[in-house]
Automatic annotation (TrEMBL):
Residues 1-32 form the signal peptide. The lineage of its organism: Bacteria, Pseudomonadati, Pseudomonadota, Gammaproteobacteria, Cellvibrionales. This is TonB-dependent receptor. Belongs to the TonB-dependent receptor family. GO terms for cellular component: cell outer membrane. Residues 58-163 form the TonB-dependent receptor plug domain. Pfam families: Plug, TonB_dep_Rec_b-barrel. Keywords: Cell outer membrane, Membrane, Receptor, Signal, TonB box. It is found in: Cell outer membrane. The keyword Disulfide bond does not apply. It comes from Microbulbifer okhotskensis. Residues 416-920 form the TonB-dependent receptor-like beta-barrel domain. The keyword Membrane applies. NCBIfam families: TonB-Xanth-Caul. InterPro entries: Beta-barrel_TonB, Beta-barrel_TonB_sf, Plug_dom, Plug_dom_sf, TonB_rcpt_bac.
């Protein structure tokens, strides 16, 4: 048995966009101050969205890039992340083959602020920990009218965007051209790789919307619905499994005097499932007079991802003294080929290799609700008062269910009852790496599809639930005046309460490295530990050509073994992380701002912009469970009935104030040429998981034979926010016939970053003093040991770069070629900031999310009713934090290029026919685990094709 080698028209905007295409200039007002009317240029097709985005950028009073409603509906995007990822300095991070997280100017989602209609949004992106960054695939592109990336802030913006802020906007139905309008969008999808892993190749996208004006245009109603059902599938391989990641580098295998890199583990996996997303939007606007408007907005998104996986895992290769490794071949310091022979299968606590067939259910459910009420008064000709209330809630759950199956030598009595068992003897494994692509593997002494020898060895379930609630109230006041250079003054306040909560649990049965009589690593069930039969609950499938048993219904199998409902995740002291990783972080924020808007001239050069200051008061509190030592806590009983007095409830945290000045200036050198300058101090609060106050412990024996008491924490609420000073300088030239050339320089000075530190002082007296200073009591009979936590480091520094962008239409070309156009952007970013390299990298690493070179190019062609475009995007390698529970292990994502395309034809009856394709080159996600050119993680997702109709009335 072996695993194979494998290398790496006139478009009518859909939904709410159709009836409001003419309102782009109106909605830009949310981002910019008014400018003089420009000469009207009639354009069709993709040009409408491209040129509309440029006009919104031109009118902005901050350094910004905008994607208007036309672009969101015309590009082949299932979420707004792809559309935003084409902007200068903006890149995406793919999850399950889809763009989910944004990186801006070399900084990841931890440094972003995202709002919907100016309101802070709850997060649904948590996978192994609570997060504050937004999962953009939660937002259907069809329900968003306009999106902007603010790269420089102004005082009225909500704080938090160290890298930048993303503003999403839905439509005002009173701005629609028609009294009543209706849009329908239906697209069928096809994934060309789904069938290879047993997934359904076909899916669908359906979107419906209605906009109407009533009572002599005093009441407007907008309703929208978007449904997505499409396969998510992948083929993956990695040199890692569970906590064993990367390469062991302690042995010289080729005799050259240098240690060689040996994989610690292998996984081959196939994944299949269905993404189902339902998005709902409703807006009601009441504007009885020109001086008063009330608007109620509601947005809801439900995103279910069924995600089942199966494959083969080889674990324990890092324990090099517990098996024989022969037939090795070393290339460039890496053991690329070898034969593993298990010498003794009866070992405990993962101390020798093991081979297993594994099935997983990593399905997630993400639900988001947002509601907001805005009241806007204009009075006395010069006064504007706006009052806004908002509430946003997000919930993310993950199943995290794992079934491991091993080959056993079994002995039964005359009645067929199992008497003795141990892992099958004589198992061996031959592997051959294939660069950073999928390696080959062959097994002997084990048949992963043989029900006579294969049994369930371990059952695991680690339920995750993360919730986020944001409630806010704000008041904004604007006074128009003619006071020299000051055109108006704005002031306001915002108070908010935000609570992140997490619930973790575990159910464990059996042993990952296999059982034998007398050994079972974990058992939280009410039955005895032994290998369990699989008959009736498995089928034979294959991963990369190797047949293996796959559990067809993990819940049914668990119910047959443990009884229905008896395998739910529990909080238990034997796995005290289930207590420590649960808990909440709350933030109460009061913010005040004062800002002046500028409209003047210097010489003959018009100058506009704003300057102001925002004062932010933050009260952070973390609540959870800490291990305070035996006898020092209160009696707490876990979910299996064990009572302990080693733990206590804690709630603590700081209060701090930030003063954030900002300046934005735009110099209009001519009708086509602008220079922008911006300066600001910005702040963003640390990742939520690093603010938790819970703490756990473990014991270890030092070289002197003494037992040490070691403490680990999820973080500390006393971590300082990310704070930075930043400057922007931009030049923009706009062509009279449409298009632009822009260039921008930016520089950020970051004070400090957060990193994980393992502190173990050499002298025992020093360790005791450290624990005493931290308020940690050492249990009687133990000595102070290590302390592991997150801290603010002194590795701040600059992030600087340049962004270039250009858009050109070629109207001057003859005939059909006059419909050609192109838009392109390039950004270069560098930084001296560093974070700890973690377990895979001994050296310090660049800031997560930083790609030095990023570019995007779109070529579009409109010929009458026919429209087409092709987009190519590229980003350099960058550091990302792998989603590993309880860890922030960094990996290096390798460069990738994605290609998307779309063609459409518009008929006169309101129907458009559209064909689009995503990931045309089937670009894989490739990650390095610290050894250049060798497999870390390699994942392919396949190409996605869409064929559909738009209808507008």
């Amino acid at each position: 048995m072996s695993l194979s080698n494998k290398g790496k028209g006139v478009l009518r905007p859909t939904l709410l966009s159709a009836a409001i295409a003419a309102s782009v200039s109106t909605s830009v007002g949310a981002y910019a101050q008014e400018t003089e009317a420009l000469e009207e240029v009639t354009v069709t097709g993709i040009r409408t969205s491209v040129l509309g985005s440029l006009e919104a950028k031109r009118a902005a009073d901050v350094v910004a890039d905008v994607v208007d409603a036309g672009a969101l509906s015309s590009l082949p995007d299932q979420s707004i992340a792809d559309a935003l990822g084409r902007l200068p300095g903006v890149t995406t991070v793919r999850s399950n083959g889809q763009s989910s997280q944004l990186n801006i100017r070399g900084m990841n989602g931890d440094f972003l602020q995202t709002t919907l209609n100016g309101r802070e949004q709850a997060s649904t992106s948590g996978y192994t920990e609570s997060t504050r960054w937004i999962s953009f695939d939660q937002y259907p592109a069809e329900l968003i009218n306009q999106a902007a990336v603010y790269k420089s802030p102004k005082a009225s913006h909500i704080e938090g965007g160290v890298a930048g802020s993303v503003e999403l906007k839905t439509a005002n139905p009173l701005d629609a051209d028609k009294e009543h309008s209706f849009n329908a969008n239906v697209r069928m999808s096809f994934n060309d790789a789904a069938d290879e892993v047993g997934a359904d190749e076909f899916g669908q996208r359906v979107a419906l919307s209605y906009m109407g004006k009533f009572m002599d245009d005093k009441v407007g109603v907008a309703l929208g619905y978007s449904n997505l059902e499409q396969p998510n599938s992948f083929v993956k391989s990695r040199t890692g499994a569970d906590a064993q990641i990367g390469y062991e580098q302690g042995t010289d295998y080729d005799g050259d005097g240098s240690a060689d890199a040996l994989p610690r583990a292998f996984q081959w996996q196939s994944g299949n499932g269905i993404d189902t997303r339902n998005g709902y939007l409703a807006s009601v606007v009441f504007q009885p007079t020109d001086n008063f408007k009330a608007q109620l907005d509601y947005f809801k998104s439900e995103f279910e991802r069924s995600d089942t996986r199966h494959g083969i895992t080889v674990g324990g290769l890092g324990n090099t003294g517990a098996y024989t490794l022969s037939d090795t071949e070393v290339n460039s310091g890496v053991v690329t080929d070898g034969t593993v022979n298990i010498t003794d299968p009866k070992t405990i606590y993962d101390s020798s290799p093991w081979f297993e067939a594994r099935s997983e259910d990593q399905s997630t459910q993400a639900d988001s609700d947002s509601i907001g009420l805005n009241l806007d008064w204009n009075f006395g000709d010069r006064h504007t008062l706006a009052v806004d209330y908002s509430y946003s809630e997000g919930t993310k759950t993950r199943k995290d269910q794992i079934v491991s199956m091993h080959a056993y030598d079994l002995t039964t009595d005359g009645a067929g009852n199992l008497e003795t068992w141990e892992e099958a003897a004589g198992q061996s494994f031959v592997y051959s790496l294939n660069g950073d692509g999928i390696p080959s593997g062959a097994f002997a002494g084990v048949d992963f599809s043989d029900l006579d020898t294969m049994r369930l060895s371990r059952y695991e379930e680690y339920p995750h639930e993360y919730t986020d609630e944001v409630e806010a109230f704000k008041v904004d006041y604007k006074f128009d005046l003619e006071w020299g250079a000051i055109a108006s003054v704005e002031a306001g306040l915002r108070v908010s309460e935000r609570t992140f909560d997490a619930e973790r649990g575990a159910f464990l049965y059996g042993s990952r490295d296999g059982q034998f009589n007398g050994y079972c690593a974990d058992n939280l069930s009410d039955i005895d530990c032994m290998p369990q039969q699989l008959d009736g609950y498995v089928a034979v499938e294959s991963t990369n050509g190797l047949p293996q048993l796959v559990v067809t219904d993990m819940d049914a199998l668990a119910s047959s073994i443990f009884g229905a409902g008896n395998y739910e995740g529990k909080k238990v002291f034997s796995q005290d992380w289930t207590f420590v990783e649960s808990g909440a972080v709350s933030e109460e924020v009061s913010a005040y701002y004062l800002m002046a808007n500028i409209d003047t001239e210097i010489g003959n050069i018009p100058v506009t912009g704003n300057f102001g200051v925002r004062v932010v008061e933050t009260d952070v509190k973390s609540s959870g469970i800490q291990n305070v030592g035996a006898g020092n806590g209160i009696e707490i009983t876990d979910d299996v009935g064990v009572t302990s007095d080693s733990y206590d409830h804690v709630e603590y945290g700081p209060e701090y104030t930030d003063t954030l000045p900002s300046l934005n200036l735009t110099f209009e050198l001519s009708e086509q040429d602008y220079i922008r300058f911006a300066a600001a101090k910005v702040m963003g609060r640390p990742p939520v998981g690093q603010l938790k106050g819970g703490a756990g412990s473990w014991n270890s024996v030092n070289s002197g034979g003494d037992t040490e008491y070691n403490v680990w924490t999820k973080g500390s609420p006393y971590l300082d926010p990310f704070r930075a000073n930043q400057f922007d300088l931009a030049y923009e030239h706009y062509f009279e016939d449409g298009g632009a050339l822009t260039a921008a320089l930016f520089w950020k000075d970051i004070e400090s970053l957060v990193e994980k530190q393992y502190i173990y002082l050499y002298d025992q007296t020093d360790r005791s003093a450290l624990f005493e200073s931290l308020g940690i009591e050492i249990p009687v009979g133990l000595e102070a040991g290590a302390f592991e936590t997150f801290v603010n480091n002194d590795k701040g520094g600059y992030i600087r770069g340049i962004e270039l962008a250009g858009t050109k239409t070629f109207d001057q070309l003859p005939g059909v070629f006059s419909g050609l156009g192109m838009t392109a952007s390039y950004s270069y970013t560098e930084s001296e900031t560093e974070v700890n390299g973690g377990s895979l990298f001994s050296q310090n690493l660049p800031l997560p999310g930083l790609s030095e070179n990023v570019w995007s190019t779109t070529v579009f062609w409109d010929i009458g009713s026919f429209s087409s475009h092709l987009n190519v995007r590229y980003r350099d390698e960058f550091i990302l934090n792998m989603p590993i529970p309880g860890s922030f292990t960094p990996a290096e994502a390798q460069p990738y290029t994605t290609v998307d395309a779309q063609v459409s034809y518009a008929f006169d009856n309101g129907i458009d026919v559209i064909f689009s394709a995503n990931n045309l080159t089937d670009e894989a996600d490739v990650q390095s685990y610290g050894v250049d050119g060798s497999l870390g993680e390699y994942t392919e997702f396949g190409r996605q094709f869409y064929l559909g109709l738009n209808y507008s009335y």
